[in-house]
Input
Amino acid sequence: MHNMLKELRRDKLAVIALVLLGVIFLMAIVGPYLAPFDPITQNLHERRLGPSLVHWLGTDEFGRDILSRLILGSRNTLFIGFLSVAIGLSIGCVLGVIAGYYGGFADSCIMRAMDLMLAYPYFLLALLIVATLGPGMTNSTIAIGIASVPTYSRVVRSSVMALKGSLLVKAEEALGATDWRIIILHVAPNVFAPVIVVATLGVASAVLGGAALGFLGLGAQPPTPEWGVMLSGGRSYLIDAPHIALAPGIALALLVVSCNLFGDTLRDILDPKLK
Amino acid sequence: MKEFIIKRLVVCLALLVFTSGITFFLLELAPGDPALMMLGQDATQEGLTALRREMGLDQPLLSRYATFLGDLFQGDMGVSYQTHRPVSQEIAATFPATLELSVASMVIAIIIGVPVGITCAIRQYSLTDRVVRFAVLIAVSLPVFWLGLMIIYLFSIVLGWFPSFGRGGLRHLVLPAVTMSCYSLAIIVRMTRSSMLEVLRCDYITATRAKGIHEFYVIYKHALRNALVPVITIIGLQFGVLLGGAVITETIFAWPGLGRLMVQAIFARDYPIIRGGVLMISACSILITLFVDIICSYINPSLKPVEKS
Output
């Protein structure tokens, strides 16, 4: 762990990414105390104002302060990103462990089901699930989470399979340890490294997926401040108020770049072969 | 080889049947009465009952799926709840636009991505390599819908070079195709670079160079052929991603494609259209994977199945 932090500190881009992620997290946590204006209340007298000292990033098509919506929107954007990864990861981990550890029929069934899910392009599967559940922030989060299950289950399965043949697991089996003891005490900690890398990169694609669904009107619904929804609102005012679409897009890109950079660095540290 | 292709075709067919099943059953779980959606809120009870019987909604789920599958193999995907036109006609009217956009994006991504990836591999750690790697990182992180809006703002509103919406001719295609190609372009650059780097470190490349063969032939004749297999695989996968993600680009540029039709269908709960669209795109994606497998086995004979003696 100490070595990991040392290596992480040596990579300047990773440090910048971590700082950015920290700022966005902080924004999400203390958002309500930080936002200068109410992000939902409309003020039709101040519609589409450019950046000024009062409204640092200007106002949107309903006169709402963009900075306040951006700050509060970080909560929803992160909520979709992290919760969908949590959903995908927990289902994927369980399936991956069962497939990798028990092998045989269970492995074949689970992996064929995952192959079937992979036959759908990722966003199309998310779209299909949203079509079934109906538009909304929670439903889009669930959809993105389920669509990412095959990725996580495959990573976990291959790591578990590699461990299954190790001396450590064989010794535990010889001592009469139960499967669950072996899985929890020995397999899980060793699977942690590849999982954390895929999960970090997964947050990036989940954030993008969630925002894309929000942009299409299938994710978070207006007036909820969410970066994808904010972009969608700014779409119709590109000619006279391009600033409405600018800020949420840059914020989204920064969040995703940070997650990708941090994930890449973690992968380099945990698996130097891929460097 | 023939046996390999037949086996892969059978697997593809099975995948198509299973994906049709998943799509069918998932959308059957969706709330709402299809008969009510077709007839509207002021429909009479008798009318609803008659239409339900006509649509086979009074049949058990499995029997409905069997009928759906039978119809599907005959090219019948049902009737749209909104327009009352056959889904196959709706798809036939919009899918060419999606295909045109996806192919154009893929062509841009390949034409730029592969040479740039090769250049980065040849000049590893040079300034060009570093700049391209950073640009790739940004490109994979940019939300495509934001990029699209910014491209519209710059090239359509400010400079006025290209139209910002609709389909019709090459000028209309440029902006959506460039927007859509950005992500795939970055992935292709990344894959070409890493694949070329791996091949360039092989002993046979050193041997070829030792023979005094011109560097151009070393790179493009000897190294590229072996480096191409993972690149072609990723191109195939990216094509599926492009088709699946076309929804977003089509919505931004008001491109009359299948993706846009599907989004409108989701809002209108027009399930036959959604089902048909999802099946069409996933079928294309599955067939592209098959096609890529066959091409790869031609390029790299070691991937061909071993002939039984």
Summary: Chain A has eleven helices and no strands. Chain A touches chain B at residues 115-116, 119-125, 127-135, 204, 208, 211-212, 215-218, 228, 231-232, 234-235, 238-239, 242, 245-246, 248-249, 252-253, 256-257, 260-261, 264 (CB under 8 Å).
